[in-house]
Amino acid sequence: MTELASQGVTPQTLPALLDRHVCAWVAEQQNTVMAFVIASALDARVVAMFVRPGHERQGLGRQLMQRAEAWLFSQGCEEIWLVTDDDERVRANGFYRHLGWQEDDLLDGPIRFIKRAPGA
Q: pTM here?
């Protein structure tokens, strides 16, 4: 959760993020959130993606990312982006690459990934 807070996503800021230009999806099991993704069409990015430890590799993250990507592209975003930790041991890096995201060298430190709309 510290990583989310560093990106400005906290319980206090979340309501303001969820306006008509921002969408969020959650995956629940037995009334417990197991994964979520937040996307912003204002800046064409995936703001946050999280899968609860112990619930990885169940397809939750993949399904949520596909929804977020489709929504961003439907909002007219031709290129979308996200930022993640630059540590190659972080599994998210491989996850994003597996989903077709490409590393962008614009940042010194965290990794910025980009994905273009189909046909763009």
A: 0.79
